[in-house]
Amino acid sequence: MALLNRVRKGEKRGEKTGAAAVPGALPDLRAVWLIALDLGPPMRKILVVYKRSAFELYSESPDPTVRAFLEKGGAEVERMERSHHIQKDAHARVLAALARTDFEVTAVSRGEFRSAEGADLVVTVGGDGTFLRASHGVRDQPVVGVNTDPDASVGFFCTATAVNIASVLDHLEGLPRTTLHRLEVSIDGTSVGALALNDVLYAHSNPAAVTRYRVAVNGTDRYRRSSGFLVATAAGSTGWMYQEGGRVMPIADPRIQYVSRSVRGERPRFAKRIVLTSLTLEAQLFLDGIATVERIALGSTVTVQGGTPLTVVGDLETRRRALE
After folding, report:
1. 273-278 and 301-313 as β-strands: parallel, antiparallel, unpaired?
2. In terms of domains, do 164 and 189 share one?
3. Residues recognised as catalytic
4. Burial grade of 174 (CB within 10 A; 0-12, 13-18, 19 or more)
């Protein structure tokens, strides 16, 4: 992670940080964030976690089949390229907005991001996938999500866009905040570090194989065979858990919802703490999809319970109702 941008008040700010100087011909999304400004001592620190487009990543791939796919062109490649340019423009707008603030800004791609330690505020630039990945390395910092392509992505967690991010930053202290409960996961007593914002899935590494395990929850201890075991937060109750027949929970509900997947007649239930014993030879643990993946050894125990909440800038409960 490198310090890419220090922005402060100064007489020459307009010469270096005006919006017109930013959106020029930039080769890729990473280049947007490789603009260094240094105008004085820092006041507050912002960490920007940004998404690199699929088109950009594919273009850098050494795989000949990927290169052949791009060279062949077609509707899908054209769609990816259009999305890339939309995102590049959004990244430039966000950078221009940050350049007009009194923040010290550090930017890192979501693939390279590990921790938000030392930051006062985290700004994610992408969509919900970028927000989720960033949330795994955030502890007590508030997070602002910027949706770079709102026409193509719902971006539920993203309460800002490239159009209004300047206003959001200007009125940051007066905006509402939402507390999202997260899941803390430990394997054999050792925390995995990342905190899941949406859900945790324990399953066989082969999605078509049977997953075997024991679950100790709410005073019961049962042997189960299914397509996996899913645990979700209130924030995640409208996603994967909902597809499994789960109940949509109020956004501030601290309970966790769980279900054995693909079991006839199975109903999701609620708990505060779950202990699972792995009885599957090739098991894996997935936190928020593929954001964090852990291999689980045969006989290992996985404990899931409430973890440190996440503070999001914006009113997500109202936003959820508007999207229903």
Report:
1. antiparallel
2. no
3. 128
4. exposed
